[in-house]
Design goal:
eight-stranded mixed beta barrel, Glyco_hydro_25, TIM Barrel, alpha/beta, 36% helix
Length: 242
């Protein structure tokens, strides 16, 4: 596949990043951690806003991710209640990824893990974000029904010099020990094979207003709205049952 852009992903563990140095080193996008969870529950990464603003100021395209520990739909909602608030006001050019890789999820089984990932992504979608998911090859093989999630962008990790996962993916995290000017210590390195921005703009997601095709009949837009509203209604019923 042809590489569209090269990038990194960061969290608070990289400390203060010199984003202009990162851009000068040839990196064109960054996927920034919005948050994770600890014993006190979900929390926002303290470097999230600074990293998004710094990367944008240096001319990089930006996406986001959150590390999930959620084992029930109620826990998904609890996580997203925190992370969605942190995303407000930002404009992103890459998806918002659900990072599903923690070993504690394995005991749930493939169907449950897949259902929770999709539940997270559907809520992100209905809240105006362009959703995707992340994991590594072996976790995908054993615990995720990727065919069921084929409509969503996948960001896959595999550090062997090739991707062992055989399905489609848009971003490959190919190293966890990269060295990039502007970042102290190791940083994850990524190749992007897809330009997500036109899709995000067309959908009106990630802080972008939807693009309207003046040649498309108004009834087509109504059908798109109705399909989106039906999906939102289904999610509302699930939330009401929690």
């Amino acid at each position: 596949m042809t590489v569209f852009q090269e990038g990194i992903d960061v969290s608070r563990y990289q400390g203060v990043v010199d984003w202009f140095a990162v851009a000068a080193a040839g990196k064109e996008f960054a996927i920034v951690r919005v948050g994770s969870s600890n014993q006190s529950g979900p929390y926002v990464d303290p470097c999230f806003t600074r990293n998004v603003q710094g990367a944008h100021a240096a001319g990089l395209r930006v996406g986001a991710y959150f590390y999930t520990y959620a084992k029930t739909e109620s826990e998904v909602i609890r996580e997203l209640d925190v992370f969605l608030k942190a995303l407000e006001g930002h404009r992103l050019e890459y998806p918002v990824y659900v990072d599903a890789e923690d070993a504690s999820l394995a005991s749930l089984g493939r169907d449950a893990v897949t259902r929770l990932i999709q539940f997270s992504m559907d809520i992100l979608d209905q809240k105006g974000w362009f959703p995707g998911y992340y994991s590594y090859t072996e976790f995908l093989r054993r615990y995720v029904n990727t065919q069921q999630l084929a409509d969503y962008p996948l960001w896959v990790a595999d550090y062997r010099g090739y991707v062992g996962y055989g399905g489609n993916y848009g971003v490959w995290q190919y190293s966890s020990v990269g060295q990039v000017s502007g970042v102290n210590g190791n940083v994850d390195l990524n190749y992007s094979y897809k330009d997500y921005l036109p899709l995000i703009r067309a959908a009106g997601k990630n802080g972008y207003l939807p693009e309207v095709d003046p040649t498309q009949p108004e009834e087509d837009y109504y059908e798109l709205w109705r399909a989106a509203q039906d999906k939102l209604d289904r999610i509302a019923l699930i939330l009401a049952e929690e």
